[in-house]
Structures
1.
Amino acid sequence: MTELLPISVGIGLVIGLLFTELFGIASGGLIVPGYVALNLTKPLDLAATLMVALLTFGIVRVLSTFLILYGRRRTALMILIGYFIGMMVSRWAGVWAGDFQAIGFIIPGLIALWMERQGVIETLASLTIVSVIVRLLLILVVGTELAR
């Protein structure tokens, strides 16, 4: 059995870098497209992840009106808030709406960080395109193992 996550993240790194170099738009962080590509068949998880990322983006934007947030401090706060909101969604989502969770621990925070840096639409469009390309390449590379 092939480990899918390292392959997916590796392909995501290459495709994301190429996309950034060709079009100048990042796809939500270096490891994000690989994780998202593995979860494209789980729409509730994708929706939860994007909801957490947008909520994180909004909270940090509001906090930045009261606090001095830039550089590492802003990055760390985005990832921390995304982590905590993602954990809450994953923990309590089963109680309300069934079994779904945010993808990964830092993925929503990284998406939110890039939304803040380059814009929400640009980040989501780039993330979608790169993740679909990564998924297609995964299907070519591992074939039927991806369905498991």
2.
Amino acid sequence: MTVPTDSGVDPVIARVLALYAAGADVDRADERAAVKASLAVLSSQAPGHSVEVRIPPYAAVQVIEGIWHRRGTPPAVVECNARTWLQVASGQLEWSAAYADGRLRASGERSDLSAILPIHPLN
């Protein structure tokens, strides 16, 4: 994947996505940085505390307006690995496909994030 330099996409995210597309190894520090940067964009575009998005082992954020979650298991959870998350967040992989084949798990009310993905400027 080639991302123009003026696209607004974080260069680390662009590099990691390009490495995935090429089938190359990805440095864990770069992958972590890409996940955190993409989750920061998601948090700013869908603020709230009703859905927890977990990308282990790198990060988790709470998004989407609604019930404020403070402790224990949240009422709605989305979880997947870094590669799946970055591909879904950027539009390279459809939410429905990732969910259908088990690469992405979503449970609870409001956990279907397909209406807000891919997130701009990643797409």
